[in-house]
Amino acid sequence: MQIGNRFRCYPTPAQAQVLLQWIGCQRYIYNAKVGEDQYFRSFARKSLTHTGEFAPIDQQYSQFKTELTPWLSEVPSIVLRNGTVLWKQAYSRYFSKLGGRPNFHKKHGKQSVWLTSELFEFTPVVDAETGEITGHQLHIGSKKYPVGFVEFKAHKDYKPPASLHISIHAGHWHISFNYDDKTIEPSDKDTTAWLMQFDAAELREMTVGLDRGVALPLAGSDGQQFDFTPVQDKRLAAQEKHKKRWQKRQSRRTKGSKNWLKAKRKVARYQRYGADVRRDVAHKTSCTLALDQRYKLYVFEALKVKNMTKKAKPKQDEQGRWMRNGAAAKSGLNKAILASTWGQTQVFLQYKARRQGKLVIEVPAHYSSQECAACGHIHKDNRVSQSVFVCQSCQHTDHADHNAGKVIAGRGVKQLLAGKGVKKEKKRCGILRNKVGAVGSEPGAAMHSTLGETEVSRLGGNTPALWSLTQETTARTPSGV
User: Fold this and answer.
1) Is the dihedral of CA 347, 211, 204, 422 positive or negative?
2) Whether pTM exceeds 0.70
3) Fewest beta carbons less than 10 Å away: which of 92, 122, 206, 254?
4) What does DSSP say about strands 297-301 and 315-316: parallel, antiparallel, or unpaired?
5) Is 456 exposed, middle or buried (0-12, 13-18, 19+ CB in 10 A)?
6) Are the C-beta atoms of 151 and 195 separated by less than 8 Å?
7) Average pLDDT score over residue span 176-182
8) Beta-ladder partners of 165
9) Lowest-confidence range among 198-207, 317-326, 384-393, 417-426?
């Protein structure tokens, strides 16, 4: 199975400057390929001189190295090549109908550079007394473009990968990579077939229902509660206060000035802190659930978070005057939902449970907070308050979130035994390694794309495709374009 790692790294100021240059050049090549594709698709049907010429779907980048871009020659060609590979991979996702066409990458926010094995090496660190390998040193660069040894902090065991990403976000540097540990990971289909061997009573004992809310982010049918700690809540509130203060300062300063950039970095730092805390809570919650030996089946409500967090629609009266629409209250609710780690926790639990041979499914969410887990009676008055549930039929009393968790668990068991537990597997695509017949790649490339018949759209935007051309073409950019 694939194991992912993300470690903090600490380049020196000189190393950071070189890595930032690599990041910018790789982004430039990626955006140049996007612009080239958009240019051809915009004018191929409007200009007589471009009749029959189409945007090349390849990995060539030499046309972008001109006298106007001398700085592209100051970085390894592998960095530039990898930018075209990333663009080609994005287009492969479009061909597989997994997303839209590649778009321009912006220079603000999180930035990263993809390095293949030609530009880095993990050197083992051997203990002089015992002779055991105690860790690795990460060397980045080549003989012509040296960067040196970059310090990083590994918080868990890992194996050296074939490629890695070096990223920077709000002043923090990270290295991230994945590797195959040669362990066979059971599929959801196999796990479902195994779980369906049990009867309803046995399956209910190994099932936990998980109810998500705003006041309490996650509550289990077994009485477990997962929430931010008081210290985290206090620090998040303080960071939010500082962020708003620096946002006001940034808005009053001249855009592009040094003080404006200083305020921008401050805002990004406070935003990053909140994201790091939420990610940490989601990882710890999902890990606790996945390692619980009592449960083999985890059931969530099928919530459409994107729809739940839409802005309030404006309202007008008959005279055309704007009316109150509760936009402020809706904005606060949206912010609370997005900060509750609903989506992250479920995504993390899915892959962690799969590694343990367990299953995560979703069930319809309608009336789960109003249904009694004891008798099944549904009424809006059953939920007396945010945390109190009292059934109007059988007088069953419970914590409202735990009662909803039990209802969700029961629905999950019924759905699984009815043969509706597993969703259709998502299509995936990637760049294959060392494939004969690759186009536009250099010797020693770690990853290549393949030549073959592929459905290609030549229309503007992300419109439906026309099935006529191959993915690889030989058309090149006209001189002077």
Assistant:
1) negative
2) yes
3) 254
4) unpaired
5) buried
6) no
7) 89
8) 114, 176
9) 417-426
Q: Which two tokens stand for residue 372?
A: 């009694």
Cβ within 8 Å of residue 316, ≥6 positions away: 322, 323
Kindly report the three-state secondary structure assignment for every residue of the chain: CEEEEEEEEECCHHHHHHHHHHHHHHHHHHHHHHHHHHHHHHHCCCCHHHCCCCCCCCCCCHHHCCCCCHHHHHCCHHHHHHHHHHHHHHHHHHHCCCCCCCCCCCCCCCEEEEEEHHHEEEEEEECCCCCCEEEEEEEEECCCCEEEEEEEECCCCCCCCCEEEEEEECCEEEEEEEEECCCCCCCHHHHHHHHCCCCHHHHHHCEEEEEECCCCCEEECCCCEECCCHHHHHHHHHHHHHHHHHHHHHHHCCCCCHHHHHHHHHHHHHHHHHHHHHHHHHHHHHHHHHCCCCCCEEEEECCCHHHHCCCCCCEECCCCCEECCCHHHHHHHHHHHHCCCHHHHHHHHHHHHHHCCCEEEEECCCCCCCECCCCCCECHHHECCCCEEECCCCCCEEEHHHHHHHHHHHHHHHHHHCCCCCCCCCCCCCCCCCCCCCCCCCCCCCCCCCCCCCCECCCCCCCCCEECCCCCCCCCCCCCC
Residue located via tokens 């367990």: 358
